[in-house]
Amino acid sequence: SAVISQKPSRDICQRGTSLTIQCQVDSQVTMMFWYRQQPGQSLTLIATANQGSEATYESGFVIDKFPISRPNLTFSTLTVSNMSPEDSSIYLCSVVHSLNTEAFFGQGTRLTVV
Amino acid sequence: AQSVTQLDSHVSVSEGTPVLLRCNYSSSYSPSLFWYVQHPNKGLQLLLKYTSAATLVKGINGFEAEFKKSETSFHLTKPSAHMSDAAEYFCVVIQSGGSYIPTFGRGTSLIVHP
To answer: How far apart are CA B34 and CA A63, in angstroms?
Structure first.
């Protein structure tokens, strides 16, 4: 199994500012992902966080808006840049173990932009 | 490529009656399939998972699901609904041998009437 610590759990931010969300896993994992869950919606994949290289972004998400770092196999950050009220969502970190193909999720960061 | 279709956006049942939440998947490789539950303002909780072992999977809180390869389905059932089951349910597929990206269905809102 894997235990994920995601910080902060929630935040209220002013528009135009940036927020960095941290994801720490208690074991080394190959696959790490970032998701967004807009109010009343399902989870949408933002990007795959690649260790030591640039993240792989899904259509509709760009590095300038959502820069991601992954310096090692247990830690990643997602920054939401130049925030607007439309960025108000829950952001979740996920890891997958390739050996047993099991997914684990952080508790999420509930972001409100005012 | 992989995809998940949750056939119902809302399911309404009376307390004590059976629950059926439908999920169909598409996967080029052997899939791992999951059901997660999300209560209001809470994180994702794993209900059960199928990872190529027994096709009938039992989960927590009396839920179970059956993997039917011929029908590409993984429907979630419970014999008797409880008021506390009211929540959002997500079917998730991970394509082993592929990108290992968890792909979410749109979600099914389960409403339980007294």
So the answer is: 30
Instruction: List chain B domain ranges.
Output: 3-113
| Residue A89 half-sphere exposure toward CB, CA atoms < 13 A | 20
Angle at B107 between CA A28 and CA B8, to 5 degrees: 150
Residues B42-76 have pLDDT tens digits of 889 999 999 877 889 999 999 999 999 999 999 99
Determine whether domain B3-113 maps to CATH 2.60.40.10. Answer: yes
Q: What class, spelled out in words, does domain A4-113 have in CATH?
A: mainly beta
CA distance B80 to B15: 7
Mutate to test the interface with A, among B101, B103, B106, B109 (most CBs of A within 10 A): B101
